[in-house]
Write a structure and sequence with these properties.
By secondary structure, the chain is of the alpha/beta class. Strand 1 and strand 2 form a beta hairpin. Helix 2 runs parallel beside helix 4. The longest helix is centred in the middle third of the chain and has 16 residues. The protein starts with a strand and ends with a helix.
């Protein structure tokens, strides 16, 4: 299987002889996949994510695969002897970027998360929300092959939360694997390729992932040459593609993927003309329309 990381019988315990936190975890993370991990507090979700990020080593079992990995912890140590831009630039060089490229990437991600105004502010003086933006930015600036997010949306404002969802879609579209934990069940609803629950120290895959209809979706109507079809990337990003008339298609996609879908349509060869973009009707709206 073409995968970014594979866990085979992985377990982790407290100390050398302490109780087990996790046992017999088996998990495949394919390229381009989005995986959600759920579970009650204290069940081992964060421990699993730390194992994936190789922050902790397993007590038993093994991990195969060495992807370039980035990790956003549940609690980010903001009291660091850097400014926001200085910290991101430093992390960029640690990830192998040249100094100039690292500085450029730092500025780009601070701008994307609306944090340019405090780029020169010492980390210790940042608010919880501002330091969380830096925590997320440091994980994204080196374009990781595996992105691990532990409650990464907590503390972000609405615009930054939406930007992080777009960034997740960009990473999976680029072939990276993304694993996330979030307390909001609506987070990236309908977009996860797999959903797991940590329970009693073991990992359980849900038989049915959340329905694709969950969460906000958009509908894009795009026109191309008669007999043509939207590009393969658009098909991958959309949850439904319907031909309305020859060459004209209606594509439905999660709102978090809408920017990528529009980009795929507009940069296709030949490019597609976007006729309209709008919110997808909710299920009860469709039922009401059908009963008229």
């Amino acid at each position: 299987m073409d995968r970014v990381l594979h866990l085979d019988g992985v377990g982790r315990r407290y100390g050398v002889r302490g109780p087990w936190i996790l046992r017999a975890v088996r998990l495949e993370l394919p390229h381009g996949s989005l995986t959600r991990v759920d579970g009650a507090n204290g069940t081992g979700k964060s421990t699993l994510l730390r194992l994936l990020a190789r922050i902790d080593a397993p007590t038993e079992g093994h991990l195969s695969g060495r992807p370039r990995t980035a990790y956003v912890p549940e609690r980010f140590p903001a009291a660091l002897p850097f400014t926001a831009a200085g910290y991101l630039t430093h992390l960029g060089t640690v990830h192998g970027l040249g100094r100039t490229a690292a500085r450029r990437a730092a500025d780009e991600w601070l701008d994307r998360f609306g944090a340019t105004a405090y780029a020169r502010t010492p980390m210790a003086r940042l608010s919880k929300g501002s330091s969380q933006k830096v925590a997320v930015a440091q994980a994204l600036l080196a374009e990781p092959e595996l992105l691990v997010l532990d409650e990464a949306w907590t503390g972000l404002d609405a615009d930054a939360r939406a930007e992080l969802e777009r960034a997740v879609a960009e990473r999976t579209a680029a072939g990276a694997a993304v694993v996330f934990v979030d307390h909001d069940p609506r987070r990236l609803a309908g977009t996860a390729d797999a959903v797991y629950t940590v329970r009693d120290g073991t990992l359980h895959r849900r038989t049915h992932a959340p329905a694709a209809s969950e969460g906000p979706h958009v509908v894009v109507v795009a026109q191309g040459p008669p007999g043509g079809s939207p590009p393969a990337e658009a098909h991958r990003l959309a949850t439904a593609v319907e031909e309305i008339t020859p060459g004209t298609h209606r594509l439905t996609a999660p709102a978090s993927r809408s920017d990528l879908l529009l980009r795929a349509l507009l940069t296709a060869r030949p490019p597609r003309h976007v006729v309209s973009v709008g919110p997808a009707p909710l299920p009860h709206d469709r039922e009401t329309e059908g009963s008229r």
